[in-house]
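Changelog entry: the Leucine-rich repeat-containing N-terminal plant-type domain-containing protein record was regenerated in this release. Current contents:
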Amino acid sequence: MMTVKAGFGNAANALADWDGGRDHCAWRGVACDANSFAVLSLNLSNLNLGGEISPAIGELKALQFVDLKGNKLTGQIPDEIGDCVSLKYLDLSFNLLYGDIPFSISKLKQLEDLILKNNQLTGPIPSTLSQIPNLKILDLAQNQLTGDIPRLIYWNEVLQYLGLRGNSLTGTLSPDMCQLTGLWYFDVRGNNLTGTIPQSIGNCTSFEILDISYNKISGEIPYNIGFLQVATLSLQGNRLTGKIPEVIGLMQALAVLDLSENELVGPIPPILGNLSYTGKLYLHGNKLTGEVPPELGNMTKLSYLQLNDNELVGTIPAELGKLEELFELNLANNNLEGPIPTNISSCTALNKFNVYGNRLNGSIPAGFQNLESLTNLEFILKQF
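Regenerated structure tokens:
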């Protein structure tokens, strides 16, 4: 234990009671087995520890729980971590660790949670992580990992959470991703993935959050995406083409639908008005045409509606005035005409209203004076 302490920099204060005395089980952040006094847990999170993780940690064979998140640890993750054969939980997130993820982690057959996010780790995701039979949470987000997502990872029926956002991963989304039958969280946002959305995407029925935004995914949105039961569907910031599949209007569990910043064409399907639980609808930055469907006024939970920067025509539908929870309405930079409907002033929660860059006429409805939450209006309506 003293060797582990010696690896940490500036541990003198934070670990002052790690003094080499007999009762190591009373030291800060240490928990032991009541009978054998073997160390079971090390919780040294958010103590501003510097230095490195000592290879001596591998000598703690009974260790089940390690939490070192939120420090300033540098260096590489020692290979000896693979000798902690009883380990169930390993959180090294929010440090300054670099180098590869050691293959030795794959020896941890009891491991359930592996959380290495927000470091400076490089190299590939070891395909041998698929050999950890009980792995439920794999969070490697916000590192500098490269290469493909190992296909073997997708054949883990126990995995519940896969967080890979903010790396430099390449390759394509494998059709095997739907073999993750226990997974509810799939996040590969902000990588360099290419190819198309797998046609079998509708088979990922356990997913609750699907975020593949800000990659280089192309092609059309598959029709059977409508079979998903996700609460969040984030496809924004890709190179998706074609029309918005009408079947998305049948995805009743959707709370967030983000298809913005793609190259989608055609009309906004009126059936989206059926999404009665959706709070955020982002379709901005595409090439959508046609009119704003009045059916969107049926989306009673809607708080954010962003349709700006498209090629929409016609008038602003008065039905949007039924959206009592609407916080932001952005229709800027389209080809909309006519007046602002007076009953938009019935949206009592409205904070941001942007219709700049259209062909609207008339005046600002008098009822807008009563919208106490409205902060972003004058600048936006300077054309009037």
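Residues 1-169 form a domain with the Leucine-rich repeat, LRR (right-handed beta-alpha superhelix) fold (CATH 3.80.10.10).
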